[in-house]
Amino acid sequence: MRLNYWGVRKLISVIVPVFNAAEYLHSCIESILNQSETDFELLLINDGSTDRSEEIILSYSDSRIKYVKQINQGVAVTRNLAIDMAKGNYIVFQDADDISVPSRFDILKRHFFSDSVGLVHSDVLLIDSDDKPVGYYSNRNIDRKRALRYFFKIGTPICGGTVMVRREVFRDVRYDPALKIGEDNDVLSKITQDWDSIHVPEPLYLYRRHGNNSAREIRYDMVFAHVQKLLEVYSLQELIPEINWNNGDYGNNQARALSIISLFLKRRGMYLHVENWRKAAEDKASEADSKHFIEGITFIIEEDYAKALKAFQLCNAHDHIVENYKGECYALLREVQDAVHCFLESLNISPAYSEPIDNLKGLGGLSNFNMGDITWLKFR
Question: Where would one find coiled-coil regions in this protein (predicted)?
């Protein structure tokens, strides 16, 4: 039994949903049982497997293993069942075809150095069906205030399989069975808005890519259902907080927000949604500045950046938002000095606005991107 500095036991509950995972299940279970942190329970939930998964699970006699068999209900229902069963102070998730490095639990657990930390996660080494490395996924820290925007605009900054979560986090959060893809993104977007998250920049988790991964399904409605849920759950004010909602005409503020959302959706590949949101923006706009702004966003969507720039220049009020999108046009036209000027001006007007900060990073990537950690270059 491992105690913390105050002599209090901190048990880990490891949740592994299992569905027809016989080919890789031995490796998964062995990687968990061989952890340097030994104080955990392993919850193996057989979600209606028809292969040798049950036989493999029953071949283990480790007292830390708890086995449950159910009819097939999907990964979200299975994880929720296991969360209800878990007795640990911390909860770890692992897919039945993936591998944890031996120090994973110990390293993640050590980073819960404050009661405000609800989640710790790591980087990922991508492997194929033969354990051959095929890539690397580098995650990042995300501030609570930026979490919703990041999940909506870009996607997840966290690989769901890598996380260790404080048990209290799940008092009010569960996986949504209606989401067949992105159910982990949905949960993580909620957690990161209410709790601090810590990123460990090490490959503590080996994620296996093969033909049976659910993440490889490509039906449009399934892939983007979790993004659609964000659009339904959160208000325009929450999704586009950079607009000064207390000033100006509310309808025209809505118009600008709707047009920005249409651009984000286009950049996320949600092409079937873009026109509806753009049209809704046009319908709300009654002032000339709003119409010019929407026209500029439309031209960015159509990738006509010179016309987009002219439309933004016609706006009488060059606020932080207009300056940012002018800067994007300059950057996309490779007029980088003008782009830098616009992004800095945007930040002078509104220092808390996150878009120009992201765009300055993007400008740096145009010429040369350097990381302080050069470990990944060792075998190139």
Answer: none
How far is it between the farthest Cα atoms of the chain?
73
On whether both 141 and 252 belong to a single domain, the answer is no
The least confident of 135-139, 195-199, 351-355 is 135-139
**Averaged pLDDT, 149-161:** 91
State the sign of the Cα–Cα–Cα–Cα dihedral 140, 182, 239, 271: positive
Q: Got the DSSP string for 194-216?
A: HSEEEEEEEEEEEEEP-TT-GGG
Cβ neighbours around 181 below 10 Å, total: 18
176 and 314 part of one domain: no
What is the number of helices (H) and of strands (E) in the chain? 16, 9
Q: Please say if the pLDDT value at position 215 is more than 50.
A: no
CA gap 10, 112 in Å, rounded: 11
pLDDT-above-90 percentage for the chain: 82
- Domain range for 108 is 12-217
CA distance 305 to 292: 14
Same domain, 182 and 322: no
Q: Where residue 6 falls among pLDDT bands split at 50, 70, 90? A: very low
Question: Which domain CATH number covers 284?
Answer: 1.25.40.10
Would 351 be classed as within a structural domain? yes
For the cut 80, the answer to whether the pLDDT of residue 145 exceeds it is yes
Q: Is 212 found in the same domain as 232?
A: no
Q: How far is CA 143 from the centre of its chain?
A: 13
Place of tokens 């901190």: 10
Residue 218 — very low, low, confident or very high, per pLDDT cuts 50/70/90?
Answer: low
d(CA 208, CA 13): 22
**What are residue 127's phi and psi, to 5 degrees?**
-130, 160
Q: CA quadruple 257, 259, 265, 270: dihedral positive or negative?
A: positive
- pLDDT, residue 214, reads 52
Note the pLDDT of residue 194.
95
